[in-house]
Protein: Tetratricopeptide repeat protein
Amino acid sequence: MPRQPYLIKEGGSWMFYQPEITVSYYQELLHAMDIMHTQLLKSERIFRKIILACGNCNIDAMLSLAVVLNRTGRQIEGNALVHKAHLVCMEALPPYFNPDQDDVYWCILENRPLLRSFHAVITEYIKEKQYERALDKINYLLKINKNDDTGVAALLPVCCIYLGRYAEYLEWYQQQSPLQRTLETTFFSFLALYKLDLPEQAKARFLEARKAYPNMAAELLKSDHQFPADEFKTHNTRIPAGSRQEAFVCWLASRELWQREKELKKFLKAIPKETADLP
Structure:
């Protein structure tokens, strides 16, 4: 049986090594990853072949197969594979690895499967509504990969909001530059202020959010939420930013948060049309 992956410090930098057998399948892995979005079944066969040959040694093959499984309605198997891949990665960390002091750099290509496994398992925890575990993993990953090369910080807001850590979320939000703030994070900041019973600040933040994203503000006030398929005459491969479609998708992703606030619509309807500045 092939050896398991391991993390070791070489020349002052931590490096994640996978057994040499994975090298033999590298080109096949790249090919399968290139076609996995258009040729799902073909890529699945290649990923399974690689995993059969390498065992639990090829993290990218395991994570990529999980994506294919999730997209073809086999979420239970895909979820299990993500957790298995991440467990292999965690077992690769030596006891003397200190996340408060040590860094795992994305620029070292060998480290990318390890870092990707964190992002993948965090996404699965969020799907499972295990927000505490997801947040723990996010904080751990941001410690060892301070540049956030996987973009995991974008998953932090939803965890904080679902866990009711509104003050913590607002502190994080204030640290973001205006260019880093998104539709979701802006409206979550309004929700956080509302939940902290700061009505004047919440009103001002909603006005700010409504000015930047009027369609999302309108979506929150609707009683009947439906995807606006008629918004565009031509097909778009991606949902356009600022569109009604984007607003619906954003609302849908967090509908539980919005729908459980029974007095929210009444609060929103009382907010005046004129702009206001945050105190």
Summary: The two ends are 63 Å apart (CA to CA).
